């Protein structure tokens, strides 16, 4: 590509949500950083602009949000410094890299993934070449007629300066991605939010048998670990760019890094805290295979995480189902007894409360409904398994209950093509059962009334009030009722009440509603 003139290259981030990683603000995904490095390396003199789908929505809605202030608007919340110029940038860019995830947008409190229709509308403004990066590429390859004409090239996993416009179906070697790594200060400066950098430790799954629904073995059939030194180098560059919040989350299981090598994991965590990012604010993990956590080495690794990482940390573990028949039918491999032992190991390491009022490290639980073999008994077994955790006095950070999605190329997708998955008609009521039978009582246990939590910031306003949190892995959200605080307003709060998905609080020293 020519470098003789000042060219505009563009990243349009429509967000990604995967079992092994998040790319929804405030998370800054591995995809966004790889695209930025590839473009900067390919054309060092070009301007590389970063947009979000929220910027485009703002412009297409006449330069205004869809919700009236002081309420926050999830569709335009994650704007960049380029918001007012979004349509002009789309028109001027010689090349636009679209980062996109699932074909069906997921909805979060402060964000909504770009839909295929929104992406098509945005690309109608472009004149340059259009490249797709991320999980949506698998859907585009599976349905070429449905995505015909939208993209000139698609990349399913990674993007480098050597293959920008050619398209790729396999992930580039980590050494190749490292060669494109650049100073990220300009990218960070284009954000209007404080980012959490999602850090990838490896690809693939270390289990011998793979869960039928998971797309990670499709993305990476074999396990490929990043050297500790490569991870530390990336963290150091991000730290130099001003990033202070990190999550080791873009992999199937943190505990399985380097095949559960506690020595390598301690070298990684110590290297981040002592050298790569010595004044970080947040260091969290994501994704923990209960089989690894339940092992003797898992107990040791949990203690390392509790020692080196910051409080409020979560190790989410996928039991997926407590029903033995569903476990067998879908090759899930984790049994209720294994999960229980894993939950015990994490509690023993990190259930104690840190100086800011949050437990240092707690397990999270993931349940999936709609898997083949599911019956009404499945829900009973799930409730019984969760009751066992409650009755044992153990703590859990959160539970994620969702319906299954059949990703292209997975065994579940092949099953779905031959037989319909179980009906979703009961999902809403079953999820409500779990909310009130397990999640809300657990919130009361983990965040008792009167507990003081420090260093929160306001980040969203709804009809319920102002929502507060810290940055990190699935942070607890504290709702200050009937208020509309300015965004990013700092607060120390005292817990006053509980809901299944969040808690209520009052500012220390302030009456409710003040």
Automatic annotation (TrEMBL):
What PROSITE patterns does this protein's entry cite? RADICAL_SAM
Q: Name one Pfam family in it.
A: Radical_SAM
What molecular functions are annotated in GO for this chain?
catalytic activity; iron-sulfur cluster binding
Task: Report the residue ranges that make up the Radical SAM core domain in this protein.
Answer: 191-448
The record ties this protein, via InterPro entries, to: Elp3/MiaA/NifB-like_rSAM, rSAM, rSAM_horseshoe, rSAM_sf
**TM ranges:** none
Among Gene3D superfamilies, the record links this protein to: tm_1862 like domain
Q: What is this protein called?
A: Radical SAM protein
